[in-house]
Amino acid sequence: MEIKEEKERFVLLNDEGNEAGEMTWSNAGPEIMIIDHTFVDPTYRGQQLAQKLVAAGVEKARKDGKKIIPLCPFAKKEFEEKPEYADVLRK
């Protein structure tokens, strides 16, 4: 599985290069990223892939000096369960 960044989304590609999942965000000004959607095809669930998509968003926020508002229920749960993401969570 490969994660590729496109405009305001990370795409999860399977070994054949087909889309298997995505995480999308919107930018609210230069300092805020709003994660609004995370999806993994049911065929690939249970492999921690959605967690990897959110982690990619966290890394991007750190690299770009942004804070994240996790609106998507899955991303919100990830932020609640992972204190190591606190540095990029918009309070």
TrEMBL record:
InterPro entries reported for this sequence: Acyl_CoA_acyltransferase (IPR016181), Gcn5-rel_NAT (IPR045057), GNAT_dom (IPR000182), GNAT_YJDJ (IPR031165)
Keywords annotated in UniProt: Transferase
PROSITE patterns attached to this UniProt entry: GNAT, GNAT_YJDJ
Xref: Pfam families: Acetyltransf_CG
MF-aspect GO terms: acyltransferase activity, transferring groups other than amino-acyl groups
Listed Gene3D superfamilies: 3.40.630.30
Residue ranges occupied by any N-acetyltransferase domain in the UniProt entry: 1-91, 2-90
Name under which the protein is recorded: GNAT family acetyltransferase
Source organism of the structure: Enterococcus devriesei
Upper taxonomic lineage: Bacteria, Bacillati, Bacillota, Bacilli, Lactobacillales
